[in-house]
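Please review this pair:
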Amino acid sequence: MIDGRRGAAPSRWISVVFLQDEDAGELLAMIDREGEAAAIEYLKQWDVGDDTTHAALANGYVYDRIPEGSADRTVEDPDSPYALTYSELYGYVSLLRRYEPLVDAGTVAPGASVETSAPFRDTVPHHWDADPALSAHRSRHAIAL
């Protein structure tokens, strides 16, 4: 998905819930009976906001695109941040949520100059300057080849 907002980070997708085999069977039947929108509404109960986001980030369930295979059916709800992916052939159902990563406060905006992106410090601490009396002689420095 490409985000049309200028300067905006592209959307990513996080996994809210993934059901397979017997657990997915009831949901696949629900999709047949009531439709995909009903399945999205039902699965949204597993989205607990920030906790879901943190769990997905911690466990690596974050995607640049909606993960889908050739046997999958994918439905993206244009009025919500959710997408449903399912496969009757492989017996699984997955609900994903669009995730807008926060811009890191330490990240420099594109086109910003160094002078405007970081404040100037009048004093630089000198603790980084090693005392020559305490430093090892050059002959004792290791060199990796």
In short: Residues 12-99 form one domain. The beta strands are 12-20, 62-63, 73-76, 82-87, 92-99.
